[in-house]
Design goal:
The structure is a homotrimer of 179-residue chains. Chain A has a 7-stranded mixed sheet with strand order 3-4-5-6-1-2-8. The first copy, chain A, is 25% helix and 49% strand. The first copy, chain A, contains 4 helices and 8 strands; from the N terminus they run H-H-E-E-H-E-E-E-E-E-H-E. With 179 residues, chain A is α+β, with helices and mostly antiparallel strands. The termini of chain A are far apart. The longest helix of chain A has 23 residues. Chains in contact: A-B, A-C, B-C. The interface between A and C is large, with 35 and 36 residues.
Chain lengths: 179, 179, 179
């Protein structure tokens, strides 16, 4: 069984949406990221000591902007997509994340992985993220080594400054580690 | 020269097989992984201090289950596929691995890369891994830093517990480092 | 809108070019890498404390061979491609890099990310890299931990030995960190 040309095109375009999401998040290109979500997007991110549940593009954009701010040294590589078309304008995707996160204010470093399970919907000819959830697979947390220098930090200049940030703690449940 | 629709479909499906392999291995979804191998699959993994040579799906599944067990904190990202169709039902693939492995029992951490060279065969309409080998390109080994906390560890609950494990040392040749 | 078969084929082939580039660079397969560039290729790499500007295949090959030499422990994973066809024989690509670099002579370790913006041109039926530039997004630099062992190091045997190397400092501008 072969895919149709339309199906292969859709798979490529859905991959582009998620690629842009990760790139836009780590570079604070928020206008790019905003265009990748449906208005009614929902997320459920189950991490080490946290769970993020949010719905609606506006709330999720607030969460992202205030997570990847000027004190966040962040890299998110979402790899190995498994895209399944479930309808003419609907699809599901599985992605495997590797991420590095340094919190400059706290001096902490997190290295981890996660499996994303997403749903996509085509609206006005554009594939968009309608739902995204992940479970952490590994997560290693420690202090950033005192002899490590942050020699490049894009978000320092592009991310929200302390005085520009909003409180997003109501979107996060801090849990005991469930590793 | 363009690929045919069938060829592009085959390339996408072969990528999915390997993506599922890495995801299944790191999450101990062994029924998923088992379906990705031909019965006569062979492997030859040439690492830093080890070489794994094994043949047959059953033996290789034993190796995997007993390597990625409840003390293994593992992430394998196989990226940058180069798939070449070599026949209607045969293909080759090159992949570039990045992996992190923490052995909780030993307190050691390995970070490394490897180049995979695989062969695939279509059986009953499904692409499967018929042969897989890799050479390590870089491998860095040291103790897990004492101030690093493992805050999520999926295999701790999903991987084989000590009393469930089998001895697989006969599948591994421990070598002097050949880096 | 669907892509044509030719467009999807071109996108796959362009991905292969960049995949081979990263693999060839980290394994010193210079004859492979050389075939991936147009003769008039230009690069502009904006890193933490450096900027590399170079033009012409010959000069860029000299730069690469003398950067990824026998003291370089290197891994470059270029992921999440966003390929845009801009003409029958022209295309652009965005890639998100994750890299690890240990300088054995200096005992330093760099972990970082970068966004590549490339241009590709088809010549004689082969897609090639005509221009490549990147900006670092994060870069963490420190000493390699004294208790970390380099247990595999492919370039030690495949990369240029000290007496084989050429001076490439004229291609690099060393800057104050602009992170």
């Amino acid at each position: 069984m072969a895919y149709t040309l339309q199906q292969l095109s859709d798979i490529e375009d859905i991959k582009l949406v998620k690629h842009r999401y990760f790139r836009g998040m780590d570079t604070a290109e928020w206008s790019l990221v905003e265009g990748l979500f449906t208005d009614d997007v929902t997320v459920d991110y189950r991490g080490g000591g946290y769970r993020v549940q949010s719905s609606g593009k506006s709330e999720i954009m607030t969460f992202l902007k205030n997570s990847f701010h000027s004190d966040a040294v962040a890299m998110h590589h979402g790899n190995m997509p498994e895209i399944t078309l479930t309808g003419d304008d609907e699809a599901e995707g599985v992605w495997y994340l590797f991420d590095i996160f340094v919190d400059k204010a706290r001096g902490s470093q997190t290295v981890g992985s996660a499996i994303y399970k997403d749903r996509y919907r085509r609206e006005g000819g554009q594939w968009k993220i309608a739902h995204s959830e992940y479970d952490r697979i590994i997560e290693l947390v420690g202090p950033l080594a005192s002899d490590t220098q942050i020699s490049v930090h894009w978000l320092a200049t592009h991310g929200l400054k302390p005085e520009e940030r909003q409180d997003i703690r109501h979107l996060i449940t801090f849990e005991a580690n469930h590793g």
